[in-house]
Amino acid sequence: MAKKSVFLFVTVLVIASTLLAACQPAATAVPTAVPPAATAVPSTAVPPAATAVPQITINYWAFGTEGSTMTGGGLWSDWYANIFKQYQLDHPGVTIDFALKGYDASGSTLVVDTAVAAGTPPDIYFDTKFRVKKYQDAHLLEDLTPALTAADIAAYDPAVLAGSKSATMMWSIPADGGYWNMIVNTSLFEKAGLSNLLPQAPDYTWTTDQFMTACKAINDPANNVYCTAFFAGSTSMDSATNGWLAGWPDCKFFDAAAIHYTVNSPACLEAFTFLHSIYEQGLMVPGAAGLIDDTTDPYWLGQQVAMLDQGNWYDSITKSGVAANTIQAFNYIFVQVPNKPGAPASPVGMSNPDVWGVFKQTDPAKLQAIYDLIQYMQAPDIATQIAVGWGKVPVRTDSSFQSTDPVVAMPLAAERKFGSYDPYFVNGVPCGYTDVRTAWADARQAFWQDNADIQSILDAFVARADAIVTACP
Questions:
Q1: pTM for the full predicted model
Q2: Is the peptide bond before 202 cis (omega within 30 degrees of 0)?
């Protein structure tokens, strides 16, 4: 699972002038049946020639590289080959040209960007939503509403689906996601005799006051154990910070109706003042302003940090480390992100889902074939296999996905009980979000400093982010 988020956006203005606006395929009229003539057809008559099946090739790229493996060890290329083989047998005339592309050492979409700039993008691109979103910002994507039935739409997690739209246009369709609760190293708490301070089953909820009690008790820098960690050295996993805002329901990151960033509101100032108190009291790994995900992961894997947001990722790398025999096994659970006293239990944060996006088409017949293919791929059984292959969970509520793993089962149960929250596309999906995330990383770097003027930092971010979204075409 690629988690880097360095965004290299090759200009696509040269493409905009060459791509025609997508045409919705017109409904095909069904001809009225004509009764046969009364005269018999001579036995020597030549039968009519069979209607030729239109030949359509769909270029389908998925983010990755050749040899990429699924959770469990199988090759993604083999899985896709089997899925597409059956589809092509059932759809004569359709050929799917598939490739794993996009990944480079920086985790960006350089390969895709280059193809877009050259005027040869794929027809379908499957990648994380924030990477697909930049092509929507450039007006290069089709509306995928026709690919879903009303029953499909009703089966999706509403928060995930809402983040796939710009106004009424559905520019992406999600296949999977992951529910970000906090992850807690229970082995550390058990060793310290502090297990009673943790949230308890069945809800695993707690207030910020209860969190701080546990945080202060487990924090032991002298023995190289910290309560938690934050990082802001890159845009990567900025939702590790944003997810905390779910505990302050009046804190809204963005006002979609007004097209205005609002993370400098009094409610958000309260939230960030609380977060900065963790820094001020030395309850987190030092150097958050310069830390990135790669430099933070070892603290968790080495049992030097007790609690982190975005537990789905840390669950994944822990299991991989144990399987590879590179780390010592330890116990952990998922719990809800703390909510401020008096507020409802925090909804479960969602990871950035993997989505289908479709580049603009000029052939209505091909566009309809693409809609049909995505309808096939997003069905519960296939989408579930994609989700499990990425170590995530399906976003369709009608999937047959079951898990006996408590770190998966518990957040799923909590999602149904407390609802879900999108820490990537908070309160809407404005254009320019790639640049906004960069601005937010800069703001967070300023935030994790001594004597930070939190209100001024948030005000400056809002001014910068509003300028970005206002400049959008």
A1: 0.76
A2: yes
